[in-house]
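In this section we walk through a basic example: taking a raw amino acid sequence and producing a predicted 3D structure, encoded as discrete structure tokens. The instruction is simple. Fold the sequence below.
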Amino acid sequence: MKAGKQLSQPLRFVYGVLKAYIGVSVIYMTVALVVIFFDTEPFNLYIVRYIKTEEFSKLTIPLFGYLLMLLNGFLELIKFKKEKRKNRRRRKKDE
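The resulting token sequence is shown next.
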């Protein structure tokens, strides 16, 4: 039982990061479709960057996108700790 409690915090962090990763991936795919269909000029959306030269075209996730994912993971940890405190208080009142 203790192993499950120790594992819950890192799993909640991973859950937050994956949730943000899915969000960034949806934006990435949307931008990819726009680039494919409309052959746009290079641009930067902070989360997704499109680079176009004569030799190649490149769509990347810059550092800000990864930091956004980490931030979402930490926010999920904060939510988890608040929920944990709230549940402890409820248990104490019930006893």
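Looking at the output, two observations stand out. The first strand starts at residue 43 and ends at 44. The chain has a mean pLDDT of 85. In the next section we compare this with other chains.
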